[in-house]
Design goal:
The structure holds two protein chains of two kinds. Chain A is α/β, with parallel strands linked by helices. Chain A contains 14 helices and 17 strands. The longest helix of chain A is centred in the N-terminal third of the chain and has 21 residues, at about 60-80. Classes of the chains: A alpha/beta, B alpha+beta.
């Protein structure tokens, strides 16, 4: 039985007061809060058994290595990967995409080749590919979206040419909340022998992701958005690609043998994990994933879906409020503007009422350009938010309207 | 009044407000009252771009004093802009270049001038002081 009040007690930060008001944290799309088990995991590791991994013969080092590799197994099971060595730990989504753009680009991309993205990508899934285009002379093709915030896929098949090398698409739009039909897109791309990278930064914390069922070639996500620590993320890649791709960065642990004449690289996944990895982050991430599994991922999804519906209905009652991202298939992200009111003014007032929302372009300027706006207010929910908090946001928006005379 | 006397007066005004919303209401009022920038100058040439809100700033030297006119697309930002204009406009270049703008911190708006806010205000304040410095340097040259 899903009990939100019980869950809220697991998150120490939610008990805070901000400017004298109980904190209402609705900026989960930027980062999520951490359950006590994650905080304690990190704290107890540092206070009781810290040691670097894969190096020492001593007791602590062996223990740390075992925990790190056990975290990898947890991730593998969480996303249902075929092999443990298909899970590479990175610093986060951005690092993962940069890794693929570099390594995949080095191996397979030449001048004149094409990469397909969508109009709703956040900057992390645009800029690394643009940098690749600058290096290799390839070019980007963009799948547009309609005014509901849904990808226009009628012409997708026409976009694939013999020069198309990869399709990189976000699973869920961080600015609009739309859940993209990635499974169908992957199927189409594969029919043209085009591999697909799925940016799961905003999806995996809100639903069950099965990389084998999706059949994606790469899946990337960040630890800190899924109730884990910052500075840790995952790059899942099918074995075939990871084997063939050259490493991204050089340094300790990614090598087998080093001489000044030649270096041979380590096996997967270590080939892509240069330097001392964020092993504590990996342990924290695994703890967060286990916490979600124990809470019940289907139950979380169901609760969030109900909360999203409630939030749309409630905020929709605010006169002059316009939503951006009105797909019927979306997660708990609500992007909106109040008629005649600058989002930054609204955000500043709401903040003083103890409510954390994000204002601005959400690192997705092309999405804002689509609608011809400078930014939005974004309330991004999580499974620890409540209907009561939505009611307080509603009241806050009325206060904003009253103060700004609209 | 000296530049610091104006700052002290603003600090005194803000001491009346116990609640954040009263402060914001006052800033909104100041923003609405700010002498508007001539629309022909509200273009990219005068834009100080922030990620969150935009600020336009124009300056001219009038009988040895620097006159600022400014605007913002966000009204609370515009209220803070109005305060900066109130303190710095109509001052001699050397006063502007040497100004210690302590009032921002004292009225609790320091966070609005942090680089992470990216609302154009910090850049605007720096720009205003740079104008002061530039006019000061120019005056020095013409005296030579």
């Amino acid at each position: 039985m899903f009990d939100v009040e019980k869950i809220r007690k697991d998150f120490p930060v939610l008990q805070q007061k901000i400017y004298g008001n109980p904190l209402i944290y609705l900026d989960n799309g930027a980062t999520s809060q951490k359950p006590r088990v994650v905080i304690e995991k990190i704290s107890s590791f540092y206070s009781q058994s810290n040691s670097s991994i894969h190096r020492g013969v001593h007791f602590f080092s062996e223990q740390a290595t075992a925990k790190y590799e056990s975290a990898r197994i947890t991730v593998k099971e969480f996303i249902n990967a075929k092999h443990v060595h298909e899970v590479v730990f990175t610093a986060g989504t951005t690092a993962s995409i940069n890794n693929v753009a570099f390594s995949f680009g080095e191996k397979y991309i030449k001048a004149g080749d094409e990469i397909i993205l969508t109009e709703m990508e956040h900057h992390a899934n645009i800029v690394p590919w643009q940098m690749l285009c600058d290096r290799k002379g390839c070019k980007l093709k963009i799948i547009p979206f309609d005014d509901n915030g849904e990808l226009i896929l009628e012409d997708l098949e026409k976009m694939f040419t013999p020069k198309t090398r990869i399709l990189a698409v976000t699973h869920v739009s961080n600015a609009l909340g739309t859940i993209n039909p990635v499974k169908e897109m992957i199927k189409k791309a594969h029919a043209y022998n085009v591999p697909v990278l799925i940016d799961g930064a905003q999806s995996i914390q809100h639903g069950v992701v099965d990389v084998r069922d999706l059949d994606c070639d790469f899946f990337v996500f960040s630890g800190h958005k899924i109730y884990g620590p910052t500075g840790i993320g995952v790059l899942y890649g099918k074995e075939k690609w990871l084997e063939e791709m050259p490493p991204y960065q050089g340094g300790g642990d990614m090598v087998r043998n080093v001489t000044f004449e030649k270096t041979t690289y380590n096996d997967l996944p270590f080939k892509f994990e240069a330097g001392t990895t964020n092993y504590v982050g990996a342990m924290g991430l695994a703890t967060a994933l286990n916490y979600l599994t124990e809470t019940g991922r289907e139950e979380i999804k169901e609760y969030e879906s109900e909360l999203t519906g409630y939030a749309h209905r409630k905020l929709g009652q605010v006169e002059g409020l316009k939503f951006f991202g009105t797909s019927t298939n979306k997660i708990c992200i609500l992007s909106f503007l109040l008629d005649g009111i600058h989002q930054y003014d609204a955000g500043m007032i709401i903040d003083k009422l103890g409510i954390a929302v994000r204002t601005g372009t959400h690192c997705a300027q092309p999405v804002m350009d689509h609608f011809g706006i400078d930014g939005t207010l974004r309330a991004s929910l999580a499974f620890y938010n409540t209907k009561d908090e939505i009611d307080r946001l509603y009241e806050a928006l009325l206060k904003v309207k009253q103060m700004l005379g609209s | 009044m000296t530049l610091n006397e104006i700052q002290d007066e603003i600090i005194e005004d803000f001491e009346f407000f116990d609640e954040w919303m009263d402060k914001y209401n006052y800033l909104i009022e100041l923003g609405n009252k700010l002498e508007p920038i001539d629309p022909k100058y509200k273009n990219n040439g005068y834009l100080i771009e922030g990620c969150q809100s935009k600020v336009w700033l124009r300056t001219e030297l009038d009988q040895g004093k620097v006159r600022f006119t400014a605007d913002s697309d966000a009204i609370i930002t515009k209220g803070i802009v109005a305060l900066l204009v109130k303190v710095l406009s109509g001052r001699k270049p050397e006063e502007i270049k040497d100004a210690d703008l302590y009032f921002i911190d004292r009225i609790g708006l320091k966070e609005n001038l942090s680089p992470t806010r990216s609302n154009g205000l910090l850049a605007m304040m720096k720009q205003m002081k740079l104008y002061g410095l530039a006019y000061y340097a120019k005056q020095g040259e013409s005296k030579k």
